[in-house]
Amino acid sequence: METVIKNCLTELEKVMVGKPHQLRLALCCLISRGHLLIEDLPGMGKTTLAQGLARVMGLSYNRVQFTSDLLPADILGVSVYDRERSLFEFHPGPIFSQVVLADEINRATPKSQSALLEAMEEKQVSIEGETRPLPSPFFVIATQNPQSQAGTFPLPESQLDRFLMRLQLGYPDAEAERHILLGDSGRINMQHIQPCLDSDQLAELQQQVASVRPSSALIDYLQRLIAYTRTSDQFAWGLSPRAAQALLQSAKTWACMDGRNHLLPEDIQAVLPSVVEHRLREQSDQRGYSGEALGQRLLAEVDVVG
Fold it and tell me: What is the model's pTM?
């Protein structure tokens, strides 16, 4: 797995320089069979990273530009009457793809946002009384602007919970920005990205992750982290069992990416902020914004050894 991951990161760095940790987390999310949410200010490279991930995975993909006038049928598809055959024929929407890029997802209305709920959880969609399976594998890579930006509709907690990870890119450092200014990265290099995986190779990697067995001590540490969010008065609510499963699955993938078949506390610590921060809220937060430092605070408060 190490060689494949290294190749993927090398290709992604053609369009996103100076962000090795975020790139590694993004790959970890997809190999873990999770959906990815990339949140940051406009112009930070969110869409570029999402497109690069779709290309490097070697999977079929479609991009949906979320706007305020987007309808659920624009995502899922619609039946059109065929006069010659005297019947309705279903025309699948862009969601029927292995990778769906939901660009600026929080600029669409809640009704359109909710069209993704069943797809992200069940890998299927129910349209006009019929359940239709989605391709396998199926990933949603969504981008969104901060909730403080004008013209946004905040994602509800139920939909945020469908995303395994949320990443924030942040401003580039001086050296990385110089590369960008000189044209050494970005969308201009998107066409040069070579696929490093296919469906069979991805399934093989996921099988390797499934074979990792955490020790009892690691499970104890993970449970202490989860329990702290449920008992501390710092948090408006605690992490759910699904969040605990997401944290363990991501940590197992992180260990595999390092070429190990055993878990270390550092694996949990590396992925925890991206896995839990969009699922938590400070007790004193009345605006409904997820605190960006809650993950680091959680790691600082809970000891590795109980």
Answer: 0.90
